[in-house]
Amino acid sequence: MPSKCHQSGNALMIVMVLISLGVLLLVGMQKQLETWTEQGKDEQHYWKAFNQGLSSLEWGISQRWQDSGDVWQCRTLSVDRLRVCLHLSSSGNQGVLRGEGQFEVNTPPLRLYQRVAAQTIDGAVLLQAMSQGWLDFCPEPEAHYCVVY
After folding, report:
1. What is the CB-side half-sphere exposure of residue 46 using CA atoms within 13 A?
2. What is the tens place of the pLDDT at every residue in 51-89?
3. How many domains does the chain have?
4. In angstroms, what CA-CA distances link 23 with 13, 16, 26, 29?
5. How far is CA 38 from CA 32, 34, 58, 94, 102, in A?
6. Residues 22-60 pLDDT 10s
7. Which residues pair with 111 in a beta bridge?
8. In the sheet where 73-77 sits, what is the strand order?
9. Which domain covers residue 49, as residue numbers?
């Protein structure tokens, strides 16, 4: 028959094991919570940049542009940090509008594209969004057409 001293040692050992398991579970849950928080922040930054890109496209459609030929022309609305660029086709009656949304400083922007119909009236190019013309990639077949400085 085990002595009382030996039995109390077993009880102490069980308590220590339970405390250790509890601490391990809490540490694991803390790491999981930190991961979820970071993912939530990343998603929040993405949606902010996405909405800023959409706002840039809408603002760009409302602008009066110049017929600049086969080069990108860009505009910035610094108050709202909107940046939009237009590339007209060689025919001048269609183009691609690019809106940018900024994630953070020193990171490349999120770029959204909208195919547009262009109409020149009194020397100014007016734009209208084409139906189903929204894209999240540059639609130009050659990569050098997508480069904007």
Report:
1. 6
2. 999 999 999 999 999 988 778 899 999 888 899 999 988
3. 1
4. 15, 11, 5, 10
5. 10, 6, 30, 41, 18
6. 999 999 999 999 999 999 998 999 999 999 999 999 999
7. 100
8. 73-77, 82-88, 94-101, 110-121, 124-135
9. 1-149
